[in-house]
Design a protein that fits this description.
Number of helices: 3
Radius of gyration: 26 Å
Distance between the termini: 56 Å
Helix content: 55-70%
Strand content: under 5%
Largest sheet: none
Length: about 120
């Protein structure tokens, strides 16, 4: 306790004063518009979900092969296939959702052309 108090006092005594400065932050996504940022996020999710979907189908196949007639494992494998398929369909349609939303709100942007 005494050691922590001494460290606190030394830190307070020798702390350098901080002055306000003009700090600029770089854009980590390199996107100019909100829609380009959303497009970049969807591209990232797409690139991650495809290999993940393949892995999930392999796991479901493993459960099908090793079920030995157990209804629980068959149901588990069927659920994995079902939810993997639903998730991949959502990811595939995500690009279309953006264009649908842009058309719904009446944006003149058209297809998203991001660098």
């Amino acid at each position: 306790m005494k050691k922590g108090f001494i460290i606190l006092i030394i830190t307070i005594l020798f702390a350098t004063p901080v002055t306000a400065q003009n700090i600029e932050f770089a854009n980590p996504l390199d996107d100019d518009t909100f829609w380009c940022m959303i497009d970049g996020i969807i591209d990232f999710v797409f690139n991650v979900s495809i290999p993940l979907g393949v892995i999930m189908y392999i796991i479901a196949g493993y459960f099908f092969v090793t079920c030995l007639g157990q209804a629980e494992k068959i149901d588990r494998a069927k659920k994995i296939v079902l939810w993997t398929t639903i998730g991949l369909l959502i990811v595939f349609l995500a690009k279309g959702f953006i264009l649908l939303i842009l058309e719904f709100v009446g944006s003149e942007m058209g297809p998203i052309n991001c660098p």
